[in-house]
Amino acid sequence: MDHKQCTVQLSVQPSRALVDEKFKVLVQKAPPGAQLTVRSHHHSEDKQDWEAFGHYICDSTGALNLSKDPSLGGTYEGVEPMGLLWSLRSVPGSKPGLRMRKKSIETPMEVTVSVYLGHLSEGFSEQRALAAVVVERWYMAPGVRRIPVTEHSLTATLFLPPGPGPFPAVLDLWGGGGNLVEYRASLLASNGFAAMALDYLTNELTKTTGKMVENDYFEAAFKFLEQHPQIVGSRIAMWGLSLGTTMTLKMAVYSNVMKLRCAVCYSGSHIQPVDGSVKDIMEYMHKKEENTRINENQEVIWRDLILPVPKDPALKVDMGRVQCPLLVVVGLDDQNSPSYESAMDMKEMMEEAGNSHLLTLLTYPNTGHLIEPPYTPHFRTTVFRSVKNTDLFMVLWGGETAAHSRAQEDAWRKTLMFLREHLCDRGNSAVTSTSNL
């Protein structure tokens, strides 16, 4: 085919959108019945390159619609309009175990979508694209305010939606990797909730006292939100992932300060020394390190670390005392945490206590530990450095790419519905998506 005579048209709409919004990819004026490869490419903040691609055949008019036409091969197959995002993988020759995460949420994730003649699987840099467009994917909608928080010795970032509020709020906790992770909180604010990302593990927090944070650290974060003039103090939720779930359940049940309106727990457990702090929980897990498995690929598997589920009530949160609506989300292929076994025990405890009506449980087959916002690429294994250990090692998180990605989309939608149901007055217009980019 003569590229000089090629007039292929490519459109991706919307070209600027939040990361939880779908786009539509259309190809027009290609040769009728032509074999085409549609590829996405992203150069991340840490200077790594990522790609995804699908193999397609144009119709008799030379048109292709990724929302209707199936990919016949590539990094995804079938009718998958967002496959160009959720199947992103590091390009051949990259370091093993990379994970793509947005660090600066005040800038967009830029993705170049390109069309090539033929069904290609490699060598894209040596080929000339028939057409290409750059797409912006944002975690922070226009008007969302990012406010660093250091009061009460907190290490946190508050995100406020546009407008005067007051807004219901979410206290957002990530897991055992530490650091201040902002992208989920900023996306929540883009959907109308005030959200505060809270770091509770990073070594920076120990510089003053030389100790890990105590439970009152989380209560201080809650009180900060409760007293904020743009937040409805009686409508605060807590959302934890992995170790964040452990702390969320502890505070929801045992804190006399934190009166949560509802709680969301992803990929975590209620198993812990209930009288302990973060340090005590970490030491409890450390003592059970003999339960760690390493597979034939030298990948660390931690899912058995705190199994079997203990019968000692001092080693698991008393779920019968939960008084707020609770959403629990687990992947059935979670290789990092016994989230399913924990969820079943939590459910049984709540049924025995008569408060199981407060529990909403979502379980997803072939889904791993890292359940992220929708269209985030799936990572079955990544290099990991724990807070207590400076060594790097490969960790198995689990999940199969297509199923895991569908779970992320479904769980995000249902979580937003859950938060709106329990944090908002009916008809409350203060919580609306602010995704008009």
Gist?
It is built from seven helices and 21 strands. The chain has 437 residues and is of the alpha/beta class. It folds into two domains: 3-138, Immunoglobulin-like, CATH 2.60.40; 145-423, Alpha/Beta hydrolase fold, catalytic domain (Rossmann fold, 3-Layer(aba) Sandwich).
What does it look like?
With 437 residues, this protein is α/β, with parallel strands linked by helices. The protein has 7 helices and 21 strands. An 8-stranded mixed beta sheet has the order 10-11-13-12-14-15-18-19, sandwiched between helices. The protein has a 6-stranded mixed beta sheet with strand order 2-9-8-4-5-7. Strand 14 (231-241), helix 4 (243-254) and strand 15 form a beta-alpha-beta unit. The relative contact order is 0.12. Belongs to the C/M/P thioester hydrolase family. Residues 20-151 form the Acyl-CoA thioester hydrolase/bile acid-CoA amino acid N-acetyltransferase domain. InterPro entries: AB_hydrolase_fold (IPR029058), Acyl-CoA_thioEstase_long-chain (IPR016662), BAAT_C (IPR014940), Thio_Ohase/aa_AcTrfase (IPR006862), Thio_Ohase/BAAT_N (IPR042490). It holds the Pfam family Bile_Hydr_Trans.
Query: Strand-residue fraction?
Result: 25-35%
Query: What strand order characterises the main sheet?
Result: 10-11-13-12-14-15-18-19
Q: Tell me, briefly, the overall form.
A: globular
How many domains, in number, for the residues? 2
The count of helical stretches stands at 7
Mind telling me which CATH architecture of the largest domain this is? Answer: 3-Layer(aba) Sandwich
CATH fold-level topology of the largest domain: Rossmann fold
Low-confidence stretches: 1-5
Helical fraction equals 10-25%
Report the biggest beta sheet as strand number plus sense, adding barrel if it closes.
8 strands, mixed
Q: Please write the string of helix (H) and strand (E) elements.
A: EEEEEEHEEEEEEHEHEHEHEEEHEEEH
